[in-house]
Amino acid sequence: MLASPSQTPEASSSPKIVRAHSCVLCQQRKVKCDRQKPCSNCVKARAECIPSVPTLPRRRKRKFSEQDLATKLRRYEFLLKKHGIKVEDEEPSDGGQMSKERDWYPASKGSKGLMLADSQHSRYVENTLWEHLRDEIIEDPKDALQASSDEETHEHEIYPHHEAFLIDPDSAPKDLSFLHPQPVQIFRLWQTYLTNCNPLTKFFHAPTMQQVILDASSDLQNIPRHTEALMFSIYLLAVTSLSDEECESMFNEQRSALLTKYSHATQQSLVNARFLKSLSLSTLQAFCIYLLSLRRSLDHQSQWVLTGCAVRIAVRLGIQHDGITHKIPPFEAEIRRRTWWQVVFLDGQASKLAGTGFPTWLGKFDTKLPLNVSDSDLSPTMKETPVEKEGATEMMFCRLRAEVGGAFRKTGTLDSDGMWHLTTGSECIPGKDKAIDELEDRFHKYYIQYCDPSIPLHMICIYMAKSVICMMRMLAHHPRQYPDKGASMPQQEKDMLWAESLKELEIAAACHLDKAMQGFLWHTHVQFHLDAFIYVLSELRNRTTGELVERAWRQVEIAYEHRPEMLTENKNTLYFAMGSLCLKAWTKYEEAGGRYKGTQLVPIPRYISKLRMQRKIPEPPTPTPPQIQSQQPTPESLNRHDNSSIDSNQMAQYANVIPGYNSYNTTNDLWNKAGIGLNMTIPEITPVDWEYWQTLMDGDLPAYTGDPSIPVDPSQGWIS
Q1: Residue 307: phi, psi to the nearest 5?
Q2: Nearest to 392 by CA among 447, 331, 326, 333
Q3: Cross-strand pairs, 125
Q4: Does the predicted TM-score (pTM) go above 0.85?
Q5: Which helix (H) or strand (E) holds 601?
Q6: What pLDDT, in 10s, does the model give residues 415-445?
Q7: Which CATH class is domain 15-51?
Q8: Which residues pair with 62 in a beta bridge?
Q9: 457 within 8 A of 199, measured Cβ to Cβ
Q10: Which of 679, 682, 622 is nearest to 468 (CA)?
Q11: What residue stretches are annotated with the Zn(2)-C6 fungal-type domain (predicted)?
Q12: Where are the domains of the chain?
């Protein structure tokens, strides 16, 4: 037998290690790697040859099984029973078989969650967003389990695998100096971070951090590990805040390539800094900034797990307790406050999107709100806490967010399941309105009246303050306040709740169109208030005609157009359930002749067609024109609804700015030019009520009977 090449004397005398995959540097440079260890390209570049992490194989399509048929059968039986049709149950002979195949388990009498389970997977969901969509999840619980399967893969893998990040088999420190950009570009990335990211996060004292970066840039080979982790996380979030065109113009590189490079570098730098056991506040800040950069690319469940790590690290550092009470110097105490509240915001948002309840630790920390002061008022050598300022400061946005959380903690109660409630059940609605009015007055007195709308940070604070108050009014007035779950709720109250939800969506759209907000899109996009969006969809199942209904459907279309992930991520259980609810509402709208504008039939929106395609629902036949056409608008109605968008003069009145500054137009051309959409509201600590949402989704609330054209006092809101 002839010897193979691997058996020749030459080969045996000089063995070479051959890898199965190319290295990271060759992948980034898009050159062929010889897969040696080290490869020739890395040897020439005098760079460390780091092996790339292979992508997981694509999951094979499952064959249609008897269990799938059984799941569909149970779903159909559930729908039949829901509509009053009796279905004879045939209990299996083996009592244990039913529990193995069952897809969902109703909560016990005292519980507010929903357990989804089969023989191999389980998932527990427990908050407003998910309970509101209980019907859509129960209809096909298998999707909710498969959507979070460990076999799930993504077509685009810009970011490295986060599982390898937490459990790295090769966790030895690696040299990352060659991954730093040139000093000029380091400073450019830092300036980008200061403009787009720092005003919304305020983790550290910018002048001090700038000096740290300047010193490190002059000696990249000897940067302390915690500082290097912070620098790479700053690079990553700065690139995240830029558009594709800006990255090409500023760095002559594609945005995706920069994200891949700096994401890997940030992960490795955190591993180098031993972030899971580090006692450095800078390392925790680097980890939090890294998590901020992942919010649009990482699934909600993984986000929640990673933010949980941030919480545990923060608790280990003790920043959940105010530093002054432990004799920590004033400067360090203030930086600890800023960092802690960012951890609270991160975990609160992730918990809501992942479908989990808020943890009880949220009610136990005693860290004070960060001071409303600018960085120029702070110094590492100061001996006394600076006097807090009244008015606009560099800290204003983060302070407003913290005040919202503080308001819920002060006026609310923490339920046993960790859920925040605006007030106790015994307090009347006027009392809640008074508390909200006081918070609104405080916002205006101490912050908003000092805002200059020509400054982007000030303008985003105006949007956020208005949006937060709007959302709090919605939460304070919803039907859970009534023993009969809204049956005796006055029609005026129902109309107000509907109008507040619509206001919230219109505020989000106005914020998106403001050119001054473009640098903040990285943050505002993930803060879209799904509570209001889902409530509007739910109401549209009963409200089918009228001016506000048309405005609501326009906002639904805008939301789907600006947030394409709500359509494309069909493995996301939350988005899939929202789409099912949207289709139910659209069917009612079509049946009521909503597609007819006079005698003209309006085409089906793209997002509706996409949702139907995903669910393999055929397009229905062309609807019949309604027998009674809508009447010609009267002068009174024209005066009341002369502008179906937000009145910019009302925004100006609230913000004490020049009318017409932030013009708002809802034409299709402007929406198409706008790009991705976003919302500025923040209150991650959201009051919830599972029983109400379940009743709402089951269709047990009384049907809407009021006038679809709701007159709302312009001085009280944005619906005009």
Answers
A1: -65, -30
A2: 447
A3: 114
A4: no
A5: strand 600-601
A6: 433 334 554 443 577 878 888 899 999 999 9
A7: few secondary structures
A8: none
A9: yes
A10: 682
A11: 22-49
A12: 15-51, 162-374, 399-622+640-716
